[in-house]
């Protein structure tokens, strides 16, 4: 029922609404209306008006002497005028890009309290534990870095670093070996963050693997040529 009433009443309510709004605005321009006051403020003002009516009467009286005194008041500034600097000193210019650290905002350069570890430290002992889990154990890590043993065990169980796995098929052609070399160079630039499985020395490993595959390929070709 309410929706039906609103649909019927809306055209009458909005009839000539723009002209009516302009009339209200024009009326407000000609008639000054003070801002509404809080009811408690109205009570206080009415009480003061009743107790001291002469104070409010003075508001309606124009003081000619005060107006004349204001006309004689002048403000003169005596501060020295600031002269523009004529020095043309060249500002330092650095054209080198800002090099961010590997960990970005997560990298810290301030002392870490005992019982805490930086993200870089966590990456390092994760990589060492992966390469040599028998020697780099949770107890040795906790003792070396003064960490809680239970927390170190949780970190070793639930967090791993990236593993770069290089299959033998990646060494068959020169273009693929070049791509592998680029990946290995990236791994070198992030020590501790990327682990290459089973490769203790990256450059020697890729060379040995490529040489082994090439020798196997040449032997198979020689064998097939001899049979023919």
Q: Helix amount, in percent?
A: 40-55%
Q: SSE order, as H and E?
A: HHHHHHHHEHEH
Distance between the termini: 100 Å
Mean pLDDT: 75
Can you offer a commentary on this structure?
With 228 residues, the chain is mostly helical. The protein folds into 3 domains: 2-59, no CATH class; 111-160; 163-227, no CATH class. It has helices at residues 2-13, 17-30, 39-51, 53-57, 64-71, 119-131, 138-145, 149-158, 174-189, 202-227; strands spanning 162-164, 194-196. It has a two-stranded parallel ribbon with strand order 1-2. The longest helix has 26 residues, at 202-227. It is elongated and about 100 Å long. Mean pLDDT is 75; it is low at 198-203 and 217-228.
Concise summary:
It comes from Biomphalaria pfeifferi. The chain is mainly α and 228 residues long.
List the defining traits of the structure above.
NDUFAF4; 3 domains; 228 residues; mainly alpha; two-stranded parallel sheet; disordered C terminus; Protein NDUFAF4; 3% strand; single chain; 2 strands
Topology (SSEs and partners):
Blueprint: H1 2-13, H2 17-30, H3 39-51, H4 53-57, H5 64-71, H6 119-131, H7 138-145, H8 149-158, E1 162-164, H9 174-189, E2 194-196, H10 202-227
Parallel strand pairs: 1-2
Helix pairs in contact: 7-8, 9-10
